[in-house]
Amino acid sequence: MTFDQMGLSEPILRAIAAQGYTTPTPIQAQGIPAVLAGGDLLAAAQTGTGKTAAFTLPLLQRLAHAPQARDAQRRVIPRVLVLVPTRELAAQVADSVRDYGQFLTLRCMVMYGGVGMQPQIDALKRGVDIVVATPGRMLDHQAQGYLNLSGIDTLVLDEADRMLDMGFIHDIKKVLAMLPKKRQNLLFSATFSDEIKTLAQGLLDKPAVIEVARRNTAAQTVRQTVHPVGRERKRELLSHLIQQHNWFQVLVFMRTKHGANRLAEQLARDGIGADAIHGNKSQGARTRALGAFKSGKLQVLVATDIAARGIDIDQLPLVVNYELPNVPEDYVHRIGRTGRAGAEGEAISLVCVDELRFLRDIETLIGKSIERRLIQGFEPDPKERAQPIKVGRTVIGGPRPASRGNAPRQAQARPRGDAPARHGQGHGQGQGHGGQPRGDRGRGGAQSRRG
Q1: What whole-number percentage of the chain has pLDDT above 70?
Q2: Residue range 371-380, pLDDT digits in tens
Q3: DSSP states along 341-387
Q4: Which whole-number Å values give the CA distances from 377 to 227, 237, 333, 385, in the listed order?
Q5: Helices H, strands E: what count in the chain?
Q6: Average model confidence (pLDDT) for the chain?
Q7: Residue 229: in which H helix or E strand, if any?
Q8: d(CA 330, CA 308)
Q9: Which CA distances in Å does 315 have to 191, 340, 393?
């Protein structure tokens, strides 16, 4: 099947061709007809499978052939609302809408925190058809009377699993209560977790269900390797590998913001162009670093899990897990940054003795062992013993406090590296306690992470 067999109009097909695509991916082949049919949709697709186009293309098709929504004063108001968990993903989705809609007269805008509201207010006043937003900033615009939701006939929840992980469920429920009852709902998730199924039951009406990859399966096009190494020699090994193989566009994952900053500084001292991206960075700094990385001007981008969500780079060659995540599902999301849309990619993990428990959990999740490959001169000391790992306020691998009772397994505790400040602890505009960004709303929220 090709795109021109899917009932899409000539301007959209021309835009698809301009992006260099001719054949839809599996999620697109199944999702586009489902969205065009007008019913609700529940879709599970790994990152990099083309899911953004799976809802963008049919929505553009429908919007282009229907009258605009207008308020009582005849001003154009949005018809489609796309909610995403992070600023980077919001920008990525909005870019896709503009690329595929470049030959249409439809207007799209993106709204997220960390930047001034006035340009977003001005765009709303001019009239838009599609709003791509993070939940907090969207609620701010609605509360202040700038965003009219009465014309919304389609709601898209993109990366819904990550939104739930980040504590957005309360904001999502607020949004749902504000929307017209009669609408199309599209829910996209990397997995069909129990939490996603519960959300879908309350949101979707007899949805079409699409699952294009087995739950929590790592992309088959990604070559995965583990390099065992001593805990104190990771940075030295990473610099060695980058310089020996002349690697460029290397995305490196850390568990914490402080660790990301420190590693980027160390790599720079080694003569390697590197920058960090995480929740404590201003939106301008994050945008600049990501732009330099995408263009190839920046050799290495060091990122935390939340900040990296939404990074979409065609043919990203390499992902490095400098620190393994203590939540195994996050490993799948990380390595999904490479090997996208059928391209080959490589994921390398630098693993010390402290992280062997994380590695076992990851291999159990993906259902296979990952090849171990020793690098000469960097072999770990066989006498080195595992030490507890501190992630935020959680100590993993140490003795369990007696007061914890029936607490979950510590190895499954989610890192707090990008967790928000509690309400009322802010210090200055856009900042929470200790300089933590207060996300997309400009207000603290104990229950949510704002990327």
Answers
A1: 81
A2: 999 999 999 9
A3: GG--EEEEEEE-GGGHHHHHHHHHHHTSPPEE-PPTT-PPPTT----
A4: 12, 9, 31, 19
A5: 15, 18
A6: 83
A7: none
A8: 11
A9: 23, 7, 37
Answer yes or no: same fold for 3-211 and 222-372.
Answer: yes
User: Residue 173 CB: number of other CB atoms within 10 A?
Assistant: 12
CA distance 276 to 145: 36
- Residues 393-443: pLDDT tens digits? 667 764 344 433 343 333 334 333 333 333 333 333 333 333 333 334 333
Residues 138-151, mean pLDDT to the nearest whole number: 95
Task: Please name which of 165, 318, 306, 312 lies closest in space to residue 246, comparing C-alpha atoms.
Answer: 318
Confirm if 311 and 339 have CB atoms less than 8 A apart.
no
User: Each residue of 58-69: b (16+ CB within 10 Å) or e?
Assistant: bbbbbbbeeebb
Question: To which CATH superfamily is domain 3-211 assigned?
Answer: P-loop containing nucleotide triphosphate hydrolases (3.40.50.300)
CB 180 within 8 A of CB 77: no
Question: How large is the greatest C-alpha to C-alpha distance in the chain, in angstroms?
Answer: 75
For the chain, domain boundaries:
3-211, 222-372, 420-451
Q: What is the pLDDT of residues 301-321, one digit of tens each?
A: 999 876 666 566 766 889 999
pLDDT bracket for residue 217 (50, 70, 90): low
Token digits for 324? 């393994």
Q: 417: part of which helix (H) or strand (E)?
A: none
Whole-number Å distance between alpha carbons of 415 and 279: 13
User: Which pLDDT belongs to residue 144?
Assistant: 94
CA distances from 195 to 160, 191, 215, 383 (A): 10, 10, 14, 43
- Answer whether residue 114 shows pLDDT above 90: no
Q: What is the pTM of this model?
A: 0.60
Residue 224 near residue 371 (C-beta atoms within 8 A): yes
Superfamily of domain 222-372: P-loop containing nucleotide triphosphate hydrolases (3.40.50.300)
pLDDT reading at 328 higher than 90: no
